[in-house]
């Protein structure tokens, strides 16, 4: 598990390190420059011509210092300084003075084509407004060049907070980022602009991060070790009972995928509750699953309610929604789950659309929609909307959500005990003040049934004793990792949801490796 920061957290860490600990800003800058140089040296030739493009802030200062170090080692380097010198930060002024004392060559912009390596040190985490004019022209020229580009801290033009373009951004081959991953390097489109990302330690002390209360993290391969322990002295009762309330007349695929994924991730028992019509197909495709019809024709309504309640009591975790439809019947089932379930519930797909419909009906808008969910759903609930479903749920346009993923996640969960899994190319899991950004997965997973698999995985992890937030983060990571394995084996075009389930075999075996 690693933390990621936005611009304001990074500033807090910087300031604490400099002001409270007493490490001078110039020392940090020199270390940043050395780390940058060491990555660059590993990836260029002695004969390359290097242009360092520097802005007025400390990002520019890092660039000038890196240029100076390379120059000292005999590389062919020039500095292109863009901006007004009077507006430079104190450290940038110092770096410029040192470079001039050493008579480093300074270049002007129309010579960009004469260099084949560009160090992009125009803007870092201090970028606060859209880029225009001269700066935008230079960035356009960098992107049009054939040069190999190294971005210092973050590609200039990418928002460190959201990953969005501040009108235009440098397309880098490598990004050397300091101290911590930045949100903007993990989120789209920033991740595509960054190229290969190297997180370099430049000596921020641990205590600086602690006082900044870092609250956003991501997982890496070793986090697969978080999978719940399996004990040798155990039986199927030890690993929980997942009830999947899914599917409708003639729609059985979602229920099957969810239930099978839950089994494949270690759940002890999985029961599919679906339409009687799906009995034969579910029992044929997944004989391991228990079966219960929610629409048995022989029952009266009281008998039916009693049976449904006993199924809820049987479960240690409930999934409701995949392929359930939006009929009166689905509404009835959802209502029972919302009011009667005493165990964790994962609300997915049609269940989320139905919830949105209820709020439309009650004419709720804005924050009151989020508050309604907080009040109406029991604390032990996970909601797994993709952005379109989330848009319907909280009545915010999809474009606004995707421009402000992290802020939306904060808004949904800071005052609530619910866990939100906001599914996108970079899924965000949010619970109270903590957020997880998922970095596994690929576009081959944008295929029918992929979400049903995720729901099953999360349910299995909850069934085996993980907290809802932990299970959601790890579930999303495993799901994406399985997608990466499937893409490798089958290709992005060919792969489909069933391949994700098959790939779980390899992913889960990575635990302990
Ligand atoms: N403060 C520190 O101790 C350290 C900072 N470091 C570097 O410093 C960077 C942050 O430095 P700064 O906070 O000085 O900020 P930046 O260097 O990222 O850029 C801010 C400068 O650009 C200007 N600016 C912002 N948006 C603009 C726009 N759209 N058009 C034109 N000008 C614009 C600002 O007015 C300011 O002068 C980090 O990304 C990192 O590279 C590193 O040296 C490590 C230590
Ligand atoms: K930069």
TrEMBL record:
Pfam families reported in the protein's UniProt record: Carb_kinase, YjeF_N
Molecular function (Gene Ontology), one example: NAD(P)HX epimerase activity
Ligand binding (K(+)): 59, 120, 156
CDD domains, per the entry: YXKO-related
Chemical reaction(s) catalysed: (6S)-NADHX + ADP = AMP + phosphate + NADH + H(+); (6S)-NADPHX + ADP = AMP + phosphate + NADPH + H(+); (6R)-NADHX = (6S)-NADHX; (6R)-NADPHX = (6S)-NADPHX
Known cofactor(s): K(+); Mg(2+)
Domain YjeF N-terminal: 10-210
Keyword list, A-Z: ATP-binding, Isomerase, Lyase, Metal-binding, Multifunctional enzyme, NAD, NADP, Nucleotide-binding, Potassium
Domain YjeF C-terminal: 219-511
GO biological process, one term: metabolite repair
Binding site for (6S)-NADPHX: 58-62, 124-130, 135, 153, 254, 323, 386, 452
Entry note: cofactor: Binds 1 potassium ion per subunit.
Positions that bind AMP: 423-427, 451
Highest taxon of the lineage: Bacteria
Record text on subunit structure and interactions: Homotetramer.
Role: Bifunctional enzyme that catalyzes the epimerization of the S- and R-forms of NAD(P)HX and the dehydration of the S-form of NAD(P)HX at the expense of ADP, which is converted to AMP. This allows the repair of both epimers of NAD(P)HX, a damaged form of NAD(P)H that is a result of enzymatic or heat-dependent hydration.
Family, similarity comment: In the C-terminal section; belongs to the NnrD/CARKD family. Belongs to the NnrD/CARKD family.
Protein name: Bifunctional NAD(P)H-hydrate repair enzyme
């Amino acid at each position: 598990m690693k933390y990621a920061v936005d611009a304001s957290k990074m500033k807090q860490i910087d300031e604490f390190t400099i002001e409270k600990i007493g490490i001078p800003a110039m020392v940090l800058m020199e270390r940043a420059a050395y780390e940058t140089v060491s990555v660059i040296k590993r990836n260029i030739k002695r004969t390359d011509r290097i242009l360092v493009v520097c802005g007025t802030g400390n990002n520019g200062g890092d660039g000038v210092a890196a240029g100076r170090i390379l120059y000292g080692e005999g590389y062919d380097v020039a500095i292109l300084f863009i901006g007004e010198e009077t507006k430079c930060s104190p450290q940038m002024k110092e770096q410029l003075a040192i470079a001039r004392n050493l008579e480093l060559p300074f270049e002007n912009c129309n010579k960009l084509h004469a260099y084949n390596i560009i160090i992009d040190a125009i803007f870092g985490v201090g970028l606060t407004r859209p880029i225009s004019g001269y700066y935008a022209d230079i960035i356009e020229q960098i992107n049009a060049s054939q040069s190999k580009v190294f971005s210092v801290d973050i590609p200039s033009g990418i928002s460190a907070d959201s990953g969005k373009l501040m009108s235009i951004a440098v397309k880098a081959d490598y990004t050397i980022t300091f101290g911590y991953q930045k949100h903007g390097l993990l989120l789209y489109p920033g991740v595509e602009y960054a190229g290969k990302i190297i997180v370099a330690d430049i000596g921020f002390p641990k205590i600086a991060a602690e006082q900044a209360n870092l609250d956003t993290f991501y997982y890496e391969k070793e986090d697969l070790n978080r999978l719940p322990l399996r004990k040798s002295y155990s039986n199927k009762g030890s690993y929980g009972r997942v009830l999947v309330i899914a599917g409708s007349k003639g729609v059985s695929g979602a229920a099957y995928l969810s239930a099978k994924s839950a089994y494949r991730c270690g759940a002890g028992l999985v029961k599919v509750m679906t339409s009687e019509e799906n009995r034969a197909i579910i029992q044929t495709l997944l004989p391991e699953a228990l079966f219960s019809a929610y629409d048995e024709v022989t029952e009266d309504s009281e008998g039916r309610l009693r049976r449904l309640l006993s199924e809820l009591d049987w479960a240690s975790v409930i999934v409701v929604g995949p392929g359930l439809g939006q009929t009166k019947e689905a509404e009835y089932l959802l209502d029972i789950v919302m009011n009667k379930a005493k165990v964790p519930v994962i609300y997915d797909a049609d269940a989320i659309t139905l919830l949105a419909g209820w709020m439309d009906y009650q004419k709720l808008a804005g924050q009151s929609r989020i508050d309604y969910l907080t009040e109406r759903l029991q604390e032990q609930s996970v909601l797994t909307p993709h952005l379109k479903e989330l848009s319907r749920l909280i009545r915010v346009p999809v474009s606004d959500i995707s421009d402000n993923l992290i802020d939306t996640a904060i808004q949904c969960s800071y005052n609530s005990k619910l866990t939100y899994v906001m599914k996108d190319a970079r899924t965000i899991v949010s619970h109270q003040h903590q957020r997880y950004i998922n970095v596994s997965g690929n576009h081959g997973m944008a295929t029918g049934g992929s979400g049903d698999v995720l729901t099953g995985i999360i349910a299995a992890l909850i069934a085996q004793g993980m907290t809802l937030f932990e299970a959601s983060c790890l579930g999303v990571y495993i799901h994406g990792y399985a997608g990466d394995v499937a893409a490798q084996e089958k290709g992005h075009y060919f792969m489909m949801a069933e391949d994700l389930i098959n790939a779980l075999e390899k992913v889960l075996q990575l635990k302990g490796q």
